[in-house]
Design brief:
With 406 residues, the chain is an alpha/beta fold. It is built from 16 helices and 13 strands. Helices cover 42% and strands 13% of the residues.
């Protein structure tokens, strides 16, 4: 294997990294953040990360201890972890197989007089239709939060107006990455003011941290080119190093650790260099590449049996990642890698979460089953001609229909 195409191509070019370096002398954090917020929307708030923004939201809300927060059953594990840090009870809502949307009837079943919030995650580049969920939230006085970290489609879209809060990420792996940062749209003016007041008391991200992120990304981009990436995979195998863990840890923004340590890291404001670079990413957003990525995902989906592509019927799918459900995931990965394509069981940090002990009836069976069999395939526009056909052929006969796993 002389060439191995990475499971995920970072949405950044060497010229962008040069611009990121050029942004390092920027000063005036409050001014640069305000400039980005004006570009975003009238009710925008620039944060260090989505998790930082969610922690800030929970601090501003100050919900009574024991309040329940409903989550999409597949989400970043730090989100329910942060809810628990604030004394809240995370409750998963299992997903529709075709769209990965939280099932409205399960939202109704899960609700109690302690339910205060529903957090909906748009997964893998698709979007959830919020209308039925928003109606439930409106009728029951529940705050609706959408996590759009994996579903950014350009700076013109600041989120669904049906949501009370919309959260977008620009971390290393995300669309239009700025190597960090997040934008929140907070549609309640009083809540936005409370969040700003708390936010101003947090320290500003150190300039050296942004420089380290630039260097980290440059190394990642260089090593994930097909030839060096194949060499890296062979070395990992020879040295008995977990290749997936090596790749995923190299792009992780926050190392695993205790919750208190995580919270300490989250309580930062984005630096002026980060904000200046994020503004540039908005101004130069590559709509053409986004469209090509969406087309590549649709083409690969059409080559596979119906239901194999997880969440394939989600709205406005741009295929940030391309997950399938495999009968034998490890064997599927081996077959794809033998053809020169790095399939993987973990190309995203999201996981299924468990129901609280007192609500076993809400255990998300579908989400757990799917996540245990998930394999991510490369499906981005920079792949050579004919690659999608080779990927589909490599995994043929190794998948299981996602629609019949319930």
């Amino acid at each position: 294997m002389k060439r191995l195409y990475a499971r995920h191509r970072l949405d950044i070019r060497p010229a962008d990294l040069v611009r990121a370096l050029a942004s390092l002398p920027a000063t005036g954090q409050e001014r640069t953040a305000a400039d980005v917020e004006r570009m975003w929307s009238a009710d925008g708030l620039a944060c260090y990360s989505v998790r930082s923004g969610f922690h800030l939201l929970l601090k501003a809300l100050a919900l009574p201890r024991g309040s329940e927060v409903l989550f999409s059953a597949v989400t970043h594990p730090d989100m329910p972890r942060l809810a628990q840090h604030h004394g809240l009870v995370p409750v998963p809502i299992d997903l529709e197989p075709a769209t990965l949307a939280p099932r409205p009837e399960l939202v109704l079943r899960a609700m109690t007089d302690r339910t205060r919030m529903l957090v909906v995650a748009h997964l893998f580049g698709g979007r959830v239709d919020l209308a039925p969920l928003a109606e439930i939230c409106r009728l029951n006085g529940i705050l609706l939060v959408e996590d759009c970290a994996q579903a950014f489609q350009g700076p013109a879209g600041a989120g669904d107006s049906l949501a009370d809060v919309s959260m977008f990420s620009f971390g290393i792996l995300k669309t239009a990455t700025a190597l960090g940062g997040a934008m929140l749209t907070v549609r309640n003016p009083q809540l936005l003011r409370r969040m700003r007041s708390i936010h101003l008391r947090w320290s500003v991200q150190k300039r050296i941290a942004h420089l380290k992120r630039i260097v980290q990304t440059a190394v990642f981009v260089a090593l994930t080119k097909p030839a060096p990436y194949a060499l890296l995979a062979r070395l990992a195998f020879a040295l008995e190093i977990d290749f997936d863990r090596l790749v995923n840890s190299s792009a992780r923004a926050f190392p695993a650790g205790a919750t208190d340590d995580l919270v300490r890291r989250l309580e930062q404001r984005p630096s002026a260099p980060l904000m200046k670079f994020l503004a540039r990413r908005f101004n130069t957003f590559d709509h053409a590449r986004l469209l090509k990525r969406a087309v590549a995902g649709e083409e690969l989906a059409a080559m596979l049996p119906t239901g194999v592509h997880v969440g394939g019927l989600a709205l406005d799918h741009t295929h940030w990642l391309f997950p399938i459900v495999a009968e034998r995931p490890d064997e599927t990965i081996e077959m794809a890698r033998a053809e020169g394509f790095d399939a993987a069981r973990a190309a995203s940090s999201v996981k299924s979460i468990s129901a609280p002990a007192h609500r076993p009836d809400l255990e998300p069976v579908f989400a757990q089953e799917v996540m245990s069999r998930l394999v991510f395939l490369p499906a981005y526009p920079e792949l050579p001609a004919g690659s999608l056909e080779r990927v589909a052929s490599a995994v043929e006969g190794h998948h299981v229909n996602a629609y019949v796993t319930r």
